[in-house]
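Lecture notes, unit on protein representations.

Consider one protein chain, 339 amino acids long.
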Amino acid sequence: MVGGGLVPASLAYVLDTAARPEAEAAAALALDTGRDTRSMSLRAAAPLTNAKIERSRGNPYRIDPESPWYHVANVSGGRSSAFMLERLLDAHGGELPPRCEAIFANTGKERAETLDFVAALTERWGVPITWLEYAYVKGGKPARQYRIVSRETASLDGEPFSAMLDAERWMPSTAKGGRVCTAELKVGVIDRYLWQTRKLTRRQTRKLIGFRADEPHRWKPALYEACEVAYPMVDAGVTAGDVAAFWGGQAFDLGIDSSRGNCDLCYLKARPNLVATIRDEPSRADWWMDAERRSGRTFRIGESFEALKAAALAPNDTGEISGGDVGDADEPLPCFCTD
């Protein structure tokens, strides 16, 4: 492991079928449409399918010690995934069980409060969390790599996201199959890390995702067949109220309103939410505007971030759509980065 720096190209990562860009695009498409197709190495999955989460003791957070899989607790930097991490620690005597790792993949567009919160989880609970970022090295073998970072070295200027946009042919968007950011900046980064450091493929790992039981629009769609996913909070029946009550009793918290989310202007959010956020912090739109200008495309169907900023600065604009074709972008779309 190379701490705090770019993993060298000499650590060759042999991309399997499920990790190729074409398959990632197909994965994003299936996540959107719920299609069940073996040609894309995907299948529809119920919560905790084959996840070897012990249920005999009534604790969905307890991992079977005889499980053959390596478990990854996906830490998004949000309250829900942190709640899941605490329950996981509690189910194993205050520490992560053997063959289990907590990982945070930073896109570079998370808010500073998110990075502070992830760092606080380690400081307060003593749980080690691996921090990763996407990196692209033109001419590298492979070209798609990752960096191991920390709170001090993690990007806040969108560098990993920008590198991905410059390297990939696809522009993340609200269009069907447009969630390339999740596939590349999170799923792909974690998979490369697990292969290079532990020689683990997707079929040898189980990702624990912090989706709640009251958000089926996020956990019901089709999932990667080659990367089994478990939702212990779904199995436990955890709702937004449970998460809020938990953090209300803690000595520290995320420090971001739940309506804003971790990604500073996630294009999947409802238009009124984006307009309100830009109105409060106009400069946050600048990175997204620049990315659209460089690519010649927009993140949201039919409406650019430049137009969103203009709407936010207009005196009477509430953010509701009054005209134009933005598809269904006035409604929030399910994000698979986790809360």
